[in-house]
Amino acid sequence: MPEYFDISIIGKKTNTSKSQMDTCLIQLGLFEGENKSELFEGKQIIVSYFDDEDSDFDEISISIPEQRFNKETFKSELNLFTNFVNRCFECNPNLQYALCSYELNGYLIGQVKKIQNFNNDIFLKQFPIIYKRLVPLKLPTLETNTEAQDIFV
Q1: Could you give the angle at which helices 17-27 and 74-91 cross, rounded to 10 degrees?
Q2: The pairing of beta strand 43-50 with beta strand 57-65
Q3: How confident is the model at residue 1 (pLDDT cuts 50, 70, 90)?
Q4: Which of 17, 32, 31, 29 is nearest to 92 (CA)?
Q5: Is the pTM of this model over 0.90?
Q6: What stretches of the chain show up as alpha helix (H) in DSSP?
């Protein structure tokens, strides 16, 4: 079974937030379940929607198999993910975070019930790649913490 690199896209839950996220996925040529996506170099990715009734945020997870990063080319390799995240954030003004790791997202995010708890540097530093919207309607900023998880081959 391959190891997956996960991107969890987090937005404030509203009456229309799920349909807004679905609309963005459709615009990107994605749907819930398995997708072969040119956005991710033709890889067979998995898109999952998590709806926790006890939380005040929505989460869409994009799982990419066998993603590898090289220390020497890391910045350029991030461009693919940054472009994808930016397109998601352009499509949906309610999105606030995109958190990336190798298979830790479910465990870490599953402990959070309030979107305001994401705005905590101690929590965010557990992810090696973080995108967060600092200004409404602007694209998210990228932060990396490669000490959070061994992500290089």
Answers
A1: 130
A2: antiparallel
A3: low
A4: 17
A5: yes
A6: 17-27, 74-91, 105-109, 121-124
DSSP label at residue 140: P
- Residue 67 sits in a domain of what CATH number? 3.30.70
Q: CA angle at residue 99 from 68 to 70, to 5 degrees?
A: 20
Q: Is residue 153 domain-resident?
A: no
Please tell me the distance from the alpha carbon of residue 84 to that of residue 122, in angstroms, as a whole number: 26
For residue 78, the enclosing domain spans 4-144
Tally of domains in the chain: 1
The encoded tokens of residue 14 equal 């509203």
Of 118, 39, 23, 43, the C-alpha closest to 81 is 39
Residue 37, in any domain of the structure: yes
pLDDT value of residue 33: 96
In a domain, 150, yes or no: no
Cα atoms in the Cβ-side hemisphere of radius 13 Å centred on 64: 19
